[in-house]
Amino acid sequence: QVQLVESGGGSVQAGGSLRLSCAASGRTFSRYALGWFRQAPGKEREFVAAITWTGGPYYADSVKGRFTISRDNAQNTVLLQMNSLKPEDTAVYYCAAAGSSWSLDSQRMYDYWGQGTQVTVSS
What we know:
- By secondary structure, the chain is mainly β.
- It has no helices and eleven strands.
- Strands 2, 4, 5, 6, 9, 10 and 11 form a seven-stranded mixed sheet that branches.
- It is globular, with a radius of gyration of 13 Å.
């Protein structure tokens, strides 16, 4: 069982930065792949970034070069550093944990989800 709690959301102007953090409980944290998804109003939830248990990162094309995902297994946390934010990045961001490292851009692969944190980017 893994419980996930996101933090670090907020409001920022376009071009600014935010860092999201996801704290996880559970002694097997290091064995999970971790991902970030987001859902904007009126849209489906979409993949943002993921990191395997060995640290290999994956990104959606829309955030590549602007967002960085990292994990600290000792602290049971996964971070999403978001730079050069755009108004279209506005969404609720969710942290998720998957028991395997296959198809990490698919929501179906994730077993546990956090409650989400709001990110608002104004123009």
